[in-house]
Write a structure and sequence with these properties.
Bound molecules: S-adenosylmethionine
Number of helices: 11
Number of strands: 10
CATH class of the largest domain: Alpha Beta
Order of helices and strands: HHHHHEEHHEHEHEEEHEHEE
Radius of gyration: 22 Å
InterPro entries: Methyltransf_16, SAM-dependent_MTases_sf
Structural class: alpha/beta
Largest sheet: 8 strands, mixed
Distance between the termini: 69 Å
């Protein structure tokens, strides 16, 4: 017989699994991930309760958004869920069929302009499950490329920026009231996390113009204003600067007005041809004495990286060393809680976190 305590436990486990299912759906996780979360939430099958939850909570929440929806994605999920329920000889609730019929009639073309998809990335509170605090800490709304063809790599979301954002949200004291500068910002997620923890200034940069345009759209989506002259009039909007910065063309003079305390980069070490230029940018930004006569604490950089090619990474280490930069892999001694446990597509196990600082004399 179930005791009151074990019933409470199983209820809270089920609500957690249902929350994961909804967050994965809003993040547009792959359909096999949604399917397995739905099966888990139903305790091994997709029960009528879970099916109703998908319709009311997942689809219901999606319909509330004013941004672009992807009918093809929703159709794919509904088909998979129904196929699974039928193959398990369970019954499919009517509203699930009705939703599928609806999405079949509206077609499944590309989701809006420029092959963009709308993803909502919800970072759970680090204390979720431990107490009654709010379960979600930050929701970042992002337009991302639905394919890898446009905007080079900067219109897609990469595991390194998810990890760097988890790090920022878990260690807000490193970034609060600090001036932060990011290179190769892509969709702008790290900037959203930095604003959330109260960085005094956030500057995001990218060398790719279509990525920069997409990043600005994302900042507006998140009610962050992207430059002084913007006609975006929400007075509560926090300012984040977006700048075009191609590492190859970067000059010291360009950084005269920048005095960052923290420099960041996510998944920017992958192209051997760019390493020299990238390290030069980091060297300039980390040069303590460059910032006038006032002696100030030397800035520090945090880079999140997936090492895809060891030679490229070693080349980065060599060039950094020649530029008198110390690079320390702090992954193993820095506990970064998993704030995205529902994202099956996100493999955080091979992301490294590097701390880069000038070599002290
Ligand atoms: C793999 S993506 C990572 C994007 C984002 N930081 C993330 O992790 O989701 C690499 C980013 O670096 C930018 N990038 C690549 N080479 C660059 C260069 N030479 N100068 C400036 N930006 C560059 C790309 O446009 C892209 O936004």
């Amino acid at each position: 017989m179930e005791t009151e305590g074990s019933m409470d436990e199983s209820n809270s486990r089920r609500s957690k699994q249902l929350l994961y299912l909804k967050l994965a759906f809003l993040a547009m996780e792959p359909s096999n991930c949604i399917l397995s979360l739905a099966i888990e939430a139903g305790g091994g099958c997709i029960t009528p309760q879970v099916q109703n939850y998908i319709v009311k909570e997942c689809l219901g929440e999606t319909m509330k958004k004013t941004t672009v929806k992807d009918p093809a994605y929703i159709k794919g999920i509904l088909k998979k869920v129904i196929a699974f329920v039928v193959s398990s000889s369970d019954s499919v609730v009517d509203c699930l069929y009705e939703e599928l019929a609806h999405y079949l009639t509206i077609g499944g073309g590309p989701p809006g302009d420029n092959n963009r998809i709308y993803r909502e990335i919800s970072f759970l509170s680090p204390d979720y499950g431990k107490d009654c605090s709010n379960s979600v800490n930050l929701v970042a709304s992002l337009l991302c490329s639905s394919n890898m063809l446009e905007g080079d790599t900067g219109c897609s979301l990469w595991p390194s920026s998810l990890f760097l954002s988890e790090f920022i949200l878990s260690y807000p004291e490193i970034f609060a009231n600090k001036s932060c500068f990011e290179v190769g910002s892509g969709v702008g997620l790290v900037g959203i996390a930095l604003s959330h923890v109260g960085a005094s200034k956030v500057t995001l940069t990218d060398g790719d113009l279509s990525s920069l345009a997409n990043m600005k759209a994302n900042l507006e989506l998140n009610k962050l204003c992207f430059n002084v002259a913007s006609d975006f009039t929400d007075p509560s909007a926090q300012k984040v600067e977006c700048k075009h910065l191609a590492w190859e063309l970067a000059t010291k003079a360009e950084f005269q007005d920048q005095q960052p305390d923290v420099v960041l980069g996510a998944d920017v070490i992958y192209n051997p041809e760019c390493i020299l230029h990238l390290v030069r940018v980091f060297s300039i930004m980390l040069e303590g004495e460059y910032f006038g006569e006032v002696k100030r604490e030397a800035p520090v950089a945090y880079i999140a990286i997936v090492i895809r090619n060891v030679d490229t990474f070693n080349h980065f280490l060599t060039v950094a060393c020649e530029s008198r930069l110390s690079v320390v892999d702090i992954t193993s001694n820095t506990e970064v809680p998993n704030l995205l446990p529902y994202m099956c597509s996100y493999d955080r196990s091979n992301v490294h976190l590097l701390r880069v600082s000038p070599v002290s004399e």
